[in-house]
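Researcher: Good morning. I'm working through a list of sequences from a screen, and I'd like to move beyond sequence-only analysis. For each chain I'm collecting a predicted structure so we can compare shapes side by side. This is the next one on the list. No need for commentary yet; just the structure.
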Amino acid sequence: MKDKFGRPVKSIRVSVTERCNLNCFYCHREGEWHRHHSEMTPDEIERILKIARELDIRKVKFTGGEPLCRNDIVEIVLKSAPLMDRDVSLTTNGTLLSKYAYELKEVGLDRVNVSLDTLDPEKYRRITRKDMLNDAIDGIYAAVDAGLNPVKLNMVLLRGINEDEIEDMIRFAADTGAILQIIELEAPVEKEQTGFFKKYHVNPKFIEEHLEKIAEQVKYNELHRRRRFVFNFEGKKAEVEIVRPMHNSEFCMYCTRIRLTSDGKLKPCLLRDDNLVDILTPLRSGATEKELKDLFIEAIMRREPYWK
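Model: Good morning. Structure tokens for this chain:
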């Protein structure tokens, strides 16, 4: 199904919880600006994904918060995987991944994104307020070993903190066989002029230009037509993507996803919180499949490019 701008909706990001065992100072919790405590059950997630499948949405990424904080995350993936037969993935901070990686793979998880902004223990504590770097690294190795391929490492670029670690992160990704995603810190327009954003935001254009010069091959990620630079790094294959969402009309032009918040609201755009469609309340109130499908279609029709 396409929105009013002709963009097909192919995937859905499902936040299964706002809970997290880390407390990263920049986290926007998948765009959920308001805290709440009502989480969808595995059966409710399954029913909503069945509606999504009827609209030919066949890719799902589970997010949070930290999705592995839910002790029923394996059940959620088990119920969802048969519906989303093109791609089932999960974004995690990795600290609990060594516990779940193999079982998640068995029940249908295809791949993972692991948030890892630094390899320095002191910086890790500064960013996350926790001393769990070794747990995250163990989780990455477990994911690779379990065959959750590809493992992508999400590194949010932070001025004055980790922009000097790019080479170390590329080396780590090459050593583990992971793909490194260097991600620009993002914020809605109304937050761009805050002291926080000005202090920590780095435009990663200079990194992209450097990688373009040394890359042996450039691949294209279907989502946003993002480029992946492939090159030899110290005798090993390295793959790096640069994610530049800020003021990037191409980022929005190729967006094919919709989001579902952990309290059951369809969210047409990550950076907007004023056009959500509540699907969980009607579901719990006995709405028919047609009524739920109409709500889903309404949410898709509310999608519009944030950066134009």
